[in-house]
Amino acid sequence: MANDMMKTLVRTGRGTPTGELLRRYWVPILLSSEIAEPDGPQVRVQIMGEKLLAFRDTEGRPGLISEFCSHRGVSLYFGRNEDNGIRCAYHGLKFDIHGKCVDVPQAPQVCEKMSIRGYPCIERAGVVWGYMGPADKQPEPPGVEWVNLPESHIFVSKRLQECNYLQAMEGGIDTSHVSFVHKFEVDGDPFHQGTKANEYIKKDGNVTFEIERHDGGLTLFGRRNGEPDSYYWRVTQWMFPWYTLIPPFGDHALGGHVWVPIDDHNCWSWSVNFHPDKPLTAQERQHLTEGKGVHCEYEEGTNVPGGSFRPKQNKDNEYLIDRVAQKEKRSFSGVFGFAAQDASLQESMGAIQDHDAEKLLPSDRAIVMARRSLYEAAVALQQGVEPPALQPEKQCVRAAGMLLPKNEKPQEWAKVHLADAATQPVYSL
Length: 429
Ligand code: FES
Ligand SMILES: [Fe+2]
Description:
Layout: H1 2-9, H2 17-22, E1 26-31, E2 43-47, E3 50-56, E4 62-66, E5 80-81, E6 86-87, E7 94-95, E8 101-103, E9 118-119, E10 121-124, E11 127-131, E12 154-161, H3 165-173, H4 196-203, E13 208-214, E14 217-225, E15 230-239, E16 243-246, E17 254-263, E18 266-274, H5 282-289, H6 323-327, H7 338-348, H8 365-382, E19 400-405, H9 410-417
Antiparallel strand pairs: 1-11, 2-3, 3-4, 4-9, 5-6, 6-7, 7-8, 10-11, 12-18, 13-14, 14-15, 15-16, 15-19, 16-17, 17-18
Helix pairs in contact: 1-8
The structure holds FE2/S2 (inorganic) cluster and fe (ii) ion.
């Protein structure tokens, strides 16, 4: 059973149970800036194994269509983006943003039969989102808080991660790893330094979790020792099907991720920072652009429209591991940077982790529950049960960090302070 579950969860191609589930949600596809100009260059993008082409048409509308021409399979990457469509360079068939064939120069009468797959798009938070599921099931745009903030308040980046999305996402759910691999990073990083959160995290690596399952996903309450009369709780959110929200650090910008399969061996790790109620400062934005916090620096020439967005620290250079820094306790593993630390460990598990060989610990309860939630939803969908958390209001939750008296239940606290999160102050230490 466990085995079947994992084999099901890591496969996301069209027609697979998990693939069909994920296709029922809006998918972050690429940065809006990758197709900045109307009639500008189209770019290739692969999502859940599907090879797609993204472009902006003459009217400025984003389009997401199959990469290949319906005539004889040529890549439309080599086509012409003009007059509200892409014209195949081989024999001139033309397709609009919906994938509808609008011209067959040789045989206009067959035009209707020549359409290719096209997916509806929206733009939010500087990102083009696509909907890849059945047309009559298209949900409302995501209700996740950062997705709906003004662009001045958010910074979004993406990086290639060379492993299955699931093991990458599990790193976002498992906050106990922060006390180890990120331990020495938190003091120097501009988005973590100078906070009480750091002190508690470093002092107590033995997190115990309480987990609450709700309509939108899971709320994970991680308990560490706080002050003599209190516990320090870090509240992580996992929302269906691939969002995580990182518990905050002091007054620093809030953070989160989205983990999207490129294929079953690679994923996009989307990283976000935001302030709910004020713009990011110029200084913050500069640090974020430089790859600080949960973002990264890129291998030269890869962070361009349609590029691979491969991090500068990658498996070919052992993530620039520095054994001296490790010895001197400047880096726990010798790798620097949150993103590279996570990627180095998660990619080291292999493209798809060998789940038969893993031996889980009590601190893994959160990832076990996330796996189960996804799996149950995927199986239920096969039986005709609609997926969970498609309603935007179910996705509007927030992460938090707080001290509570030892006898107070964090679930009770969260009911008051985190329900309807957008109307609340940020709770952070
Ligand atoms: S292959 Fe595209 S028009 Fe012939
Ligand atoms: Fe991490």
